[in-house]
Amino acid sequence: MSAVAIVGAGLIGRAFAITFARAGRTVRLWDPDPAAAPGAAGFIATVADDLAANDLLGGRTVAEVLAAIHPVTTIEAALDGAEWVQECGPERIEPKRETFAALDRIAAPDTILASSTSGLLPSAFSEGLPGRARCIVAHPINPPYLVPAVELVPAPWTDPDVMRRAEAFLREVGQVPLVMTREIDGFIMNRLQGALLEEAFRLVAEGYAGPEDIDRGIADGLALRWSFIGPFETIDLNAPGGVADYVARYNDLYAGIFAQSQRRADWTGAVLDTVTAQRRTVTPQDGLAERQIWRDRRLMALRAHKKLADDTFGR
Amino acid sequence: MSAVAIVGAGLIGRAFAITFARAGRTVRLWDPDPAAAPGAAGFIATVADDLAANDLLGGRTVAEVLAAIHPVTTIEAALDGAEWVQECGPERIEPKRETFAALDRIAAPDTILASSTSGLLPSAFSEGLPGRARCIVAHPINPPYLVPAVELVPAPWTDPDVMRRAEAFLREVGQVPLVMTREIDGFIMNRLQGALLEEAFRLVAEGYAGPEDIDRGIADGLALRWSFIGPFETIDLNAPGGVADYVARYNDLYAGIFAQSQRRADWTGAVLDTVTAQRRTVTPQDGLAERQIWRDRRLMALRAHKKLADDTFGR
To answer: Is A242–B276 a contact, with Cβ atoms under 8 angstroms apart?
Structure first.
């Protein structure tokens, strides 16, 4: 199998390096800052150790994974023979356009050029490029070695065959591609997250419940089923006759709720003070970094559980 | 500790019987259909065995749990000495009003009267009762022995002390109470679920992605973190400076998405055919019951994992 290039060795780039190397790919890691790619090695080694301890290295050893990741000093060296480029640069349109122009100029014609962006549409950074048909968004939830979903988003001019190859590539490296048919702000996941957060902020802003009640209602309630079957299968299994039966029973309830939800809470207003006060009571500002480490440990244990449950019960 | 009465021995009533008995309570189970309460025994025994196998019986034996659940033949016997009544009858306003009138007439003055209803507001069935101040909704996600969140919803006239006692009671029996300050259609969890489903149906209806992509985006994406920290803590840990930093970075993105989301997809229209077709391809109509059993096994394994992770890493 051919190599993968990662352009941008920050948090997302490093995480993708581990993800691809764990799947047996040769990874070339380049960053415009010459210190960044070599500097990623310590982080990568620590994560690889943790993944090995949870049997999440795909049967490979830590040494094998580390040996597959090569910091390189030029973009040309990164792209040489690459089947896939994962661009992980800054989230601003001008540098993104410049990077994609360079990638399109240097990469072999059949290399797929994928951006990790969460906020920019693929049409915005690929417009006008000779190779715009091979440019896409492949947006992960960080870190991709623990969260497998990756959104594949085409521009209007993306070649359908590029999308098919992209989907196959992501499956080969053990990720779960969500294949969009066309671009829209926020893609799939941030639109779903945004919808949930809108209601969460609204309930808190209007005083129905506190932020902790919302978090518990998801973490000790709805997200238990969602975390292995998703929202459509959840409702499909929540009425004796399946999803059509569910909609027949509950559409009126949800239509009524929707009618009450046509105003935005001001996330930057008083409700933010309420949420911040609750969060800082539980986790002080100077405890956030440590809590992020805790979150990743729990996420890793959850992934190990899901892998075992997939094997034991099936998906 | 005093006894708990369950009025209505259907799916939810049986599940609550196990939940309360596992916590060491004496449970009296009554149903207007004389066959229902005794008929629940087989189901309860099977579930207790499964819970024991996953160390989810709170340290009690199956025999202890079964011995704590008493089918009774009169509502008076059920309510005698009960600290808490969990009403699990039909989801229609007239029978609910009649049941609560009977409960209020028969129960000792300080007994809390809680309904499992998901669709009726507490004011609607407690209005006019002499003991309306002790009537609330305690809405679970089924089954409560696997999903700990329970919404506590007051009517405008509910005594604040009843809410405090209800919260304490639910914590004592190992559930996670979400305490609302006032009633609203859908309470917390179905409003959050509805918001997510609205966007999910809209994305499918408008052809951006298929139902399976939505389910994977949640099950292999967003819900992994949500399943142990919830949406507010998720964003609090997703920006270096916490939730205020996150809102500063992403409010514009979400405001834009919100502006694009002010129309409802017709859940009963063509999109339902799309969702149904996808669901029935994966799980045929006659496979739904078996898939529900599979879901509950996975849910049980997930709960066992969460218990272990809580002990190992903390919450």
So the answer is: yes
